[in-house]
What does this fold into?
Amino acid sequence: MSEPAGPLAGESYEGYVTVRALPPQGMISVRADLSAEGEGAAMALLDALGAEMPDRRGIAEGRDGAVLAWMSPDEAMVLCSFDGARQLAAGLDEALSDQHVLVADVSDARAVIELEGGAVREVIAKLAPVDMDAFAPGEIRRTRLAQVPAAFWMPEEGRLRLVCFRSVARYVFDLLATAARPGREVAKG
Amino acid sequence: MSTRLATGGRLLDRSRRIPFSFNGKRFSGHPGDTLASALLANGQMLMGRSFKYHRPRGPVASGAEEPNALVNLGEGARHEPNQRATTTELFEGLAATSQNHWPSLEFDVGAINTALARFLPAGFYYKTFIHPRPFWKHVYEPFIRQSAGLGKAPAEADPDEYEHFYAFVDVLVVGGGVAGLAAAKAAALSGAKVMLIEQTAHWGGRAPVDGGEIDGVPAAEWVARTVSELETMENVTLRTRTMGAGIYDHGYVLAYERVADHKLGGEAPRHRLWRIRTAQTVTATGAIERPLSFAGNDVPGVMLASAVRDYVVNWAVSPGDRTVVVTNNDDAYRTALALKEAGLVVAAVIDARAEGGGRLMDAARDAGIRVETGRGIAKVKGGKRVEGVLTCPQAGEGTATEEIKCDAVAMSGGWSPVVHLWSHCGGKLLWDTAEAAFRPDPDRAPTGADGKPMVVTAGAASGAMGLGDVLADAHAAGLAAAGAAGRAPADAEAPAGEARDEAPLAPVWMMPQGAGPALRAKAWLDYQNDVKVSDVQLAAREGFESVEHAKRYTTLGMATDQGKLSNINGLAVLAGELGADIPAVGTTTFRPPYTPISMGAIAGPARGATFQPIRRTAMHDWHEAHGADWEPVGQWRRPYTYRRDGESREAAVNREVKNTRDALGMLDASTLGKILVKGPDAPRFMDMLYTNMMSTLKPGRCRYGLMCSENGFLMDDGVVARLDHDTFLCHTTTGGADHVHAHMEEWLQTEWWDWKVWTLNVTEQWAQIAVVGPNARKVLEKLGGMDVSKEALSFMGWAEGTLGGFPVRVFRISFSGELSYEIAVPASHGRALWEAIHEAGQEFGVMPYGTECLHVLRAEKGFIMIGDETDGTVIPQDLGLDWAISKKKDDYIGKRAQMRSHMADPERWKLVGLETVDGSVLPEAAYATAPGTNGNGQRNTQGRVTSTYHSANLGRGIAMGLVHRGPERMGEVLEFPKVDGTVVKAKIVEPVFYDKEGTKQDV
It folds into this structure.
């Protein structure tokens, strides 16, 4: 079998923030009752990932680089290694087999783009209707970027990761690179 | 003549000169100049021609309200019409031309219209061009279109770039004058997140020009100090060159930043559109001075008194050597004093008030300025430039008793608060009798979602006049806004300013009061649209009582300035003529944007490569490299066909059609929607979604299904695979994926919220490849890894396994009537698997095929296509799909609707095949005619073509169509007129043209 190929093949752009396409990332969608009073899907995720189910618009780190993100009141996203996603999804499905859940490996559905630099918030604020001043590590935001859906979070200050559907990865990369072009700084006036 | 003064100019950097051109003539100005101030400094008072009468015009104002000095700015692709010279910052190389004249600004043939003015009254167009009727379309309209409009549209694509910015604040303050600064500071001290925007490049508004002290220091000094204080505050954002364009519901405000209009061609975007969400907006938008309506008030050299003072103080421009000031209030005396201080001659102040003014009038008299009270201007003398004024008693009919030589007139009719932003979202106005102006009614503010006020006015925008009142009002507004935004108002003192000490204004709507018809016909209300006092009076006499009707009839306030100067004067004249009170007549509606904003700013990033998202499959680049002739399908791009060197589109399609039937074709089917439906209630949910019985489908099997809207119309179709007892995979059309997913979620969330079903759109997870043709099995067997024999994987079965080492799901389904496999692979391997199949297929004659070949193959088999055979009005029964509608189920979405009498009517148009008698291809969407005509005199019809192609396999045209009682009329010949007037005859046949028994797919 071939090496998995993402839609942007490691492209990057050095603007007043750096825009960089990351290699394929393992992703698992989980639809379930994720509330504490639920059937226990949150517990199974905690067991499997070592991460507590985050609150609304939250994202949390677990064991071995696994990340658990809130997507909606009944949807979570697990981020893991690309190679381990299929097995992890099967394991979760198995652990939750007695419950009403939907677990799907969707590692190929999206592109991951990373922004790095002091002004990552500013670049996003040109494209997404989100209060970026109030946005902080530990949060994930599902929103739109210009005309397409996207989600992003900040693993740490100065670094932001963004996912979009793979079919529009080129569009999103171009948007971000244009917004990050030197000379376009908005800066506090 | 206007000229640059030797000293002064608060905004100028006299150490540098900037070259620019106007109508090809070279001039120079200084940094800090506007185009208007620089032109005046160079003696160029004449800047344009008016719209209707082509009257020579100079600037009347100094800011955003300017109606006259509109120019074409820039050349070639950067050409932009209707730019206000008064708000255009001078930059190096600026090239402007004047508008609306031929052959030249100085000599304009169109000015003949002014001599014909008595034949061009209000409503002229409506009155003149009505008869004879056919003339409107063929004679009048083309002529009017030719002569209508100011300026010329640019002919090339805009080379500049634009962007948006989303900001979220507690308090947005619009207007950076002293009121805005005071309000912003009060809100910021209260801990609110504040954004303060100012439309010009400078803070402080009018105060530095008008003078006075704030907190014991000159206004300009207080402004500088307050700006630097605000700049150090973490919770404050300050932006100049940013205009508050509109206020909308839910605290949404658009602001328009002209980032690089004054330094074009750099890396910065030209304009930035700020999309702001704010809890509270403070409008500190100031006030606009009103002109006075006297004959010849549009002659170049007649300006607003405040503008005259701005030109003198800000830009060291003398608008004229001898100025006459004409006023109905005290403020204009400031202009007289400013002129005097600059060493210029004030010929006289003509004060319409019998009693004259107060302290300021005394100051003017003390300065040796002649003041005449109780008088007005009967008429301005001069054509392209003021030469003098004839004065008369204001109370009379305009008999001139004195001529005063002058080359400039500074007029003031009082001040109107800028209420636009307040009004955009429903704020109401009060009539302020003392100031003769509408001002915001604080008890009827625009309200937010909670029913509470979301806008508060500050300073002159509230109707407060005089520094002391302005600052106190603005400070209170800032605290109130912060409080309403949930902050504790700071315990801070308002900045202190002097109280107003002025004599009352006298409303003057016409000068002189009893001006006769000749004078009224030369007294302009709306400069840009050439509406005069006489026009509005005529409209009133003709019965236009509503201000909105009168506006449209006379075009008062309909130009690019939207009546900033003319509004109040116009409706006061209307009220006077109607014998009504001004507040009873009311104002026209204020709509965003406050001043025009660029199309580019609205588009933002949506241009060039990012105009629209283009969705690309994993194999997109391969298609591109192999001659794909693209076609948009939704936001996807799909190959219509793959053209080889020198091959026509048609030839390429025919080649693909034949090769797929004879050997082996492969199609990128990744764009088809794929939605997972899982849960204990999934089977019954599927039975409701589809017209078919889906719950009886066995795991490992596939079924073609139809999905209808609740009104019974066919909405989408596709193959459903049952993955396991609880899980279905629904394939949708390419364009239907998102819509179908939303449809599912809507029913689950609103109607069947207690059903245990989850859905997930996994369209993008999978690349999908259709391998089609007699050799399909051979190539898969060659790749190896799973059993794809007829026995192991029969028609309408699916299996999971590996092919050539790739993890795949193989669906044995066919949209072509051939032996066919659709292979789904995780998208990251899509291109590699595509290439592997393409390589392995070489010995079997493989060729990729595009959407047109897909269409021809399906049409040969009589398979319907959503969007061709359906158009939102077609039910499955119309298409002969009764076999896919379960009779056993109690219900499915659309069932009830399909039982309505109209839906069950046998008279409906139904699907048939159409075979042209001469073998030609029927035109798309052609109608079959029927005898007679309908009630509108149109030819009756009895059917229409829904799909039509040339079939390379059959060597003839084939088509499908919906025909009245079609299936009962096999063999009948219908007539289809073509647009060239000829008629094509086609026979009604079965819709299946090829392999009627379906033996080819089931091998």
Notes: The CA atoms of residues 238 and 946 of chain B lie 59 Å apart.
